[in-house]
Amino acid sequence: MALDFDDFFRKILFARQLKISDGYLSIYNEPYVMFPADSFSILMDSTLELSGKKGKIKIYKEGIKTGESIASKLEKSTNTSGDKLLDVIFHIGGLGGWGQWQIYKKDVAKKEIVVHGYNMATARSSFLRKKKSEPTCHLLRGIIAGELRVSWGSKDIEIIETQCMSQGYKYCEFIAKLKNNFDRKNKFVKNQLEL
Length: 195
Hints:
By secondary structure, this protein is of the alpha+beta class. The protein has helices at 5-14, 37-78, 82-95, 121-129, 138-152, 187-192; strands at 18-21, 24-27, 30-32, 100-107, 112-118, 157-163, 172-178. The chain is globular, with a radius of gyration of 16 Å.
């Protein structure tokens, strides 16, 4: 299921939920900032070069805190929850340059989802500088994990990224599950999660 960003943009613009005035950008009355994707990618790449696997885990965990904060604020300001909140989150992420999202598979009862992110500016910028040998969207997968934790009401959701545009793929693929449902021998699980 692909999400329609243009329609969402028109709706929040019409509802006066997206405002830009005097250098201040807000969506649903929350302040937002814009940051050049290439500069962001340089920051992430440099951090990972300095800190290796521990850095991936730290960035991911900080992303979870960030995602929980984003989802909690949007839950309150939009008065939505569950899958409706998740739709709002993915739409706003698209407006912010975090790509176009497609939910490839979803099983809410099992708390599992596979999401594809297309047109990811940060992953593409990283690829243009140097093709990567492994997925690089550690902050983003953490943010999505945090957002899912709030949307689905479970602190046990974790995410791995199995392929990334920074590696030359057409899209980034994220798989979210309850942490006990991951195969601990899987190379992505061993490399990206601390279970």
